[in-house]
């Protein structure tokens, strides 16, 4: 395998892997000196569809390289045989929104999505990460179990839909509640946490091992990808506002602090979800903030002071935290996750698209489940492409 310079070029092509791209079709191989060379196949006309025969590879472009793009590419490689996958993005880790997310599996609720569907996505994601946490990959992927409390200022009789997915979900005892004098009720449970800055490179590595390639390029219009690709998967998050004209998606700015406080071992989350303390592998995350419609990625010192004050009220020992670093990200909010097929048409041309974006603050909690669903939608597109058009009756 050889990695090439990124910048509108293929950045990873596995040895011996056949591929089809806008300018040339061929494969990488090794010659006697141990170097890799491109063996072109000049019989293929540039821009010509590779899918001239039913079993030719279907060329799939996954646009976006955050947690949605990478997990979708990996799910496609596992579930949809006969695809040639390219992940295209102007930003890869560590420059994505996913790199700065808190990364704990406590689901965000989508009011417009059926509860059973949200539970399915969460369970599939939990099972996926649980398997990693119990494997030799746990350290590299930075996935681990964490126990703690979600506390409320009033008594709640509502049991969240995910209660039987996390481990050991129960009401807090009176002894536990004494730790939180401003709160009167709470739940204790064990869930999973990951660090995006480690998990994304882990995902990207597995995507490449599956035979996919990556390309650093900014896409301004999905039609740029046709006819070089047969199907496009749109995982651009907030970028979909401009890329596909989705005005339902908007940013919710989130600011958090990453601090050193190694004695903090349990997570604490206020029932509103606005204030939280999440211990991780390399730091403790303190949050947070929600500023709807704010595109500004500059940290606000006043918000940082407010976050630290609220978190210290929940866990007074945090007054001793050090190495405090501010981080800002823009959550891609819309009424519900967009998981949908669309057939674009222009000047007699057609381009099948699968949309997969709009997770808001629930991205990591749902990412594998929704990626599996996106892969199933893509498989439907592949089957449609491979089904011969009916011959007209004479």
Detailed description of the structure:
- It catalyses: D-aspartate + O2 + H2O = oxaloacetate + H2O2 + NH4(+); D-glutamate + O2 + H2O = 2-oxoglutarate + H2O2 + NH4(+).
- Belongs to the DAMOX/DASOX family.
- FAD binds at residues 97-98, 236.
- Keywords: Cytoplasm, FAD, Flavoprotein, Oxidoreductase, Peroxisome.
- Its cofactor is FAD.
- This protein is of the alpha+beta class and 394 residues long.
- It has a domain at 2-97 and 197-248 and 336-386: NAD(P)-binding Rossmann-like Domain (Rossmann fold), CATH 3.40.50.720.
- It is built from eight helices and 20 strands.
- The chain has helices at 67-79, 115-133, 138-141, 174-177, 196-209, 240-243, 301-314, 363-386, and strands at 2-3, 12-13, 18-20, 25-30, 36-40, 58-63, 83-89, 143-152, 167-171, 185-194, 213-216, 231-234, 250-260, 267-270, 276-279, 284-287, 291-292, 322-333, 338-346, 349-357.
- Strands 8, 9, 10, 13, 14, 15, 16, 17 and 18 form a nine-stranded mixed β-sheet that branches. Strands 11-7-6-12-20-19 form a six-stranded mixed β-sheet, with helices on one face. A three-stranded antiparallel β-sheet has the order 3-4-5, with no helix packed on it.
- Helix 1 packs across helix 8 (363-386) and helix 2 packs across helix 8 (363-386).
- The radius of gyration is 23 Å and the shape is elongated.
- Residues 1-52 have low confidence and may be disordered.
């Amino acid at each position: 395998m050889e990695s090439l310079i990124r910048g509108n070029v293929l950045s990873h092509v596995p040895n011996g892997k056949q591929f089809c791209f806008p300018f040339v079709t061929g494969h990488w191989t090794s010659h006697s000196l141990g170097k890799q060379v491109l063996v072109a196949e000049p019989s293929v006309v540039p821009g010509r569809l590779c899918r001239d025969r039913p079993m030719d590879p279907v060329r799939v472009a996954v646009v976006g390289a955050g947690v949605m793009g990478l997990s979708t590419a990996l799910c496609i490689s596992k579930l949809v045989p006969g695809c040639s996958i390219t992940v295209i993005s102007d930003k890869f880790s560590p420059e994505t929104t996913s790199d700065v997310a808190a990364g704990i599996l406590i689901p965000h609720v989508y009011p417009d999505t059926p509860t059973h569907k949200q539970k399915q996505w969460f369970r599939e994601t939990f099972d996926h990460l649980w398997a990693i946490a119990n494997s030799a990959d746990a350290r590299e992927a930075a996935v681990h179990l964490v126990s703690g409390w979600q506390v409320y200022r009033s008594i709640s009789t509502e049991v969240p839909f995910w209660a039987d997915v996390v481990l050991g979900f129960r009401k807090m005892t009176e002894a536990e509640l004494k730790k939180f004098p401003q709160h009167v009720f709470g739940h204790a449970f064990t869930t999973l946490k990951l660090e995006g800055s480690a998990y994304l490179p882990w995902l990207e590595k597995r995507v490449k091992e599956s035979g996919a390639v990556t390309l650093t390029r900014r896409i301004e219009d999905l039609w740029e990808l046709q006819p070089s690709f047969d199907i496009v998967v749109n995982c651009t998050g907030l970028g979909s506002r401009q890329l596909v004209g989705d005005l339902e998606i908007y940013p919710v700015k989130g600011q958090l602090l990453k601090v050193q406080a190694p004695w903090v071992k349990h997570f604490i989350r206020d029932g509103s979800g606005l204030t939280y303390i999440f211990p991780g592998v390399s730091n403790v995350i303190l949050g947070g903030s929600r500023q709807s419609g704010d595109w500004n990625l500059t940290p606000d010192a006043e918000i940082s002071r407010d976050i630290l004050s609220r978190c210290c009220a929940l866990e007074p020992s945090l007054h001793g935290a050090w190495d405090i670093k501010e981080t800002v990200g823009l959550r891609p909010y819309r009424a519900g996750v967009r998981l949908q097929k669309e057939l674009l048409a222009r000047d007699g041309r057609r381009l099948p698209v699968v949309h997969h974006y709009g997770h808001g603050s629930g991205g990591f909690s749902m990412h594998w489940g929704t990626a599996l669903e996106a892969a199933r939608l893509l498989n439907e597109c592949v089957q449609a492409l491979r089904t011969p058009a009916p011959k007209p009756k004479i």
